[in-house]
Amino acid sequence: MSDTSHGTGGLTFDKTKGSWPSELNVLLALIIIIVIFEFLGQVLPYMKDQSFLFDTRDRFDSIFNEARLKIIILQVAIIGIIALGVSQVIITGGIDLSSGPLVAATAMIAMSFGQTELVNGFANPKALFGPWAMDLPVLVPIVIGLSFGALIGAINGTFVAYFKIPPFIATLGMFLICRGIALWWSSGNPISFPTAQFQAIGAGMMPVVWFLSLAVIFHLIMRYTVYGKHTYAIGSNEEAARMSGINVKRHKIMVYMIAAMLAAFAGIVLSAKASTAQAGMGEFYELFAIAMAVIGGISLSGGRGSIIGTVLGAMVLGVIRSGFTYIKLDGSYQLMAMGGIIIAAVILDQYRQRNKA
Amino acid sequence: MSEEFVLKTVDLTKHYGGVRALEGANFELRKGEHVAIMGDNGAGKSTFVRQITGVEQRTRGNVIFDGKEVSFAGPIEARESGIETVFQTLALADHLDVPDNLFLGREKTKWDWLGPFRLLDYKAMRQDTMAALEKTGVKIPNIHNTIEKMSGGQRQCVAIARTASFHSKLTIMDEPTAALGVQETEQVENIIRQLKAQGEPLILVSHNMRQVFDLADRIVVFRRGRICANLDIKSGDYTGEDVVSYITGAKSGAEYEGAA
Question: Is A47 helix (H, G, I), strand (E, B) or coil?
């Protein structure tokens, strides 16, 4: 309160500080990472005449290397769908660890209602149920899968909101339960050979279409609806939200339900893409989804961040994964680099908060 | 029970174990009246407020609010019945801006058929925020700054503007200017005058003698958990020194004389 030159508030504002959204930092980081890989591609001796994202080939009239760009987005799309939901949970000040196993459980359950009866004229060798569950309209597995997600989310939310169990513990329990359900559902056997309609959900670039359209929808919801505002308010100051008459418990359950339904949908898309469902699917997905959110500027202490940030966070992870493949360093280095970047993102977040306080 | 009273407490008592924080408080507040509550630290002022607003549950006694006997389970119930309280610890969401906080939990919306996903009417809320701030004389350079970037005084002003911009049946402020600078205090006092002009009753807990004489119709002094004086300061019969002697206990024996 040193500068009292402006008005009667006792504090003037540094306009430049307020107008720099944290998403720009993520975008900047993304660009820097791309430039680094581009640079490495030029200087590394074994990388002659190649370009990472920019197209230097004479035969084509394009600026970007579309093929690589497509692969990058396709690789992060399914986990990205989960990240959209996890972001909302983290914004309320919670966490959701159950999404990876939920992907597997939903994939198993949905696929068992999405199978086709005849494979090349023979009976489906992986059929779980009898003929009654074969060749059902594609809406059936989708509705069943999303309902299962909603149920799991409602249980997560109820434990967090009503029984005051820390979200970390409640969803860790659900992590194990869902993995168990995935294994139990078909006694560990894979479920395969879906109908053409079901396959179409995850065919080609469809995961990207789902991811980006859901991102737009949830961006609008978080920004322009009462649901979004209350989600931020609860994460910002739960007591104030309660005192303002927001039904905090009901709202939290809704947030966990939406997050779980997004994870369930990711499971449906993943199984459709792979044309099979297996109990081990979605391993580490929950952690990568959380990483996308955190890298994207969603604060683990709640109340801060945006869906745009999460999408950028997903792109950062995708670019790193693709970049390491591009410079021919294997997966172990990728994991180490991602780990480092996640920690850096959290340090940056804490630094931002300290500066604002 | 006369309809003339907004709030009446009969024999309101709160014991914390053996500690008698509040003992047999009989208090009345008339429509449109601004009453200041004064007293030394630990005299029972805040305890008194907490029993009325349901933050704590009383040991004994009755609270009659708006013609009905009430017993609030919590501050939300009290708020829903029309008692707005500005607590010493502010109930603001730090990451949201001024309009968001003013309208938190009672947002203006469009397309209500969308249920929880109904759209926020940002424009209407911004206009109403500007109007509310103008009416209360609060100056905030940029209402789209988040609360976390504001000074303590600005936060307090937002909290109070929030209270004042929703017509409530009773407003309670617990030391609203304790942490504020001169200009900020003035803003808060302007808001209180505004409430008075609108005929909205207020209970003001304050240590500031000048402020109380400026703003209140009546002073109720608490001492050692009991109401020890009820002074109609608008009559001009009392000076600050009188009040101080009641607070310190130098003067005593003046019984609380009902609402007279």
Answer: coil
Cβ atoms within 10 A of the Cβ of A269, count? 25
Q: Are A225 and B120 in contact (CB under 8 A)?
A: yes
Using CB atoms, pick whichever of B95, B151, B184 lies closest to residue A236. B95
CB B83 within 8 A of CB B200: no
Beta-carbon contacts of residue B234 (< 8 Å; ≥ 6 apart): B217, B218
| Mean pLDDT value of segment B184-196 | 84
Helix, strand, coil: what percent of chain B each, to 5? 35, 25, 40
- The answer to whether residues A292 and A310 touch, using CB atoms and an 8 Å cutoff, is yes
Residue B29 tokens read as 């507040």
Asked if the structure places residue B258 within a domain, the reply is: no
Q: How many domains does chain B have?
A: 1
For chain A, what are the domain ranges? 25-34+63-351
CB contact under 8 A, B93 and A233: yes
Confidence bin at A8 (pLDDT 50/70/90): very low
The ipTM value here is 0.77
Contact B145, B98 (CB under 8 A): yes
Q: Is B150 on the interface with A (CB under 8 A)?
A: yes
Give residue-wise pLDDT tens across range B63-111: 999 888 998 887 778 888 888 888 656 678 889 999 998 888 888 888 8
Structure tokens at B65: 């609010």
Residue B95 lies inside a defined structural domain of this protein:
yes
Q: Parallel, antiparallel, or unpaired: how do β-strands B60-65 and B5-16 relate? A: antiparallel
A90 at B interface, C-beta within 8 A: no
Q: Which domain holds residue B29?
A: 5-248
Asked, for residue B78, whether it belongs to a domain, the answer is: yes
Alpha-carbon span A323 to A51, nearest angstrom: 11
**A16 to chain B nearest CA, in Å?**
12
Query: Given strand B170-174, what is the order of strands in its sheet?
Result: B83-86, B170-174, B202-205, B34-39, B218-223, B226-231
Threshold 0.90, pTM exceeds: no
DSSP three-state, residue A21: coil
CB B140 within 8 A of CB A9: yes
**Tokens 């203006």 identify what position?**
B108
Instruction: Tell me if residue A194 falls in helix, strand or coil.
Output: strand
Contact B153 A9 (CB under 8 A): yes
A244:B91 CB<8 A: yes
> Which among A135, A142, A132, A138 has a CA at the least distance from the CA of A116?
A135
What residue spans of chain A are helical by DSSP H? 15-18, 22-43, 66-91, 99-112, 139-161, 167-185, 196-202, 206-224, 226-236, 238-243, 248-274, 285-295, 307-326, 331-356
Kindly report, residue by residue over A270-293, the tens digit of the pLDDT: 999 999 999 999 999 999 999 999
Asked if residue B260 belongs to a domain, the reply is: no
Q: Do A8 and B139 touch (CB under 8 A)?
A: yes
Can you give the CATH number for the domain in which B67 is found?
3.40.50.300
- Closest of A334, A308, A331, A333 to residue A320, by C-alpha: A334
Are B142 and A7 an interchain contact pair (Cβ–Cβ within 8 Å)? no
Query: Quick one: A56 exposed, middle or buried, by C-beta within 10 A (0-12, 13-18, 19+)?
Result: exposed
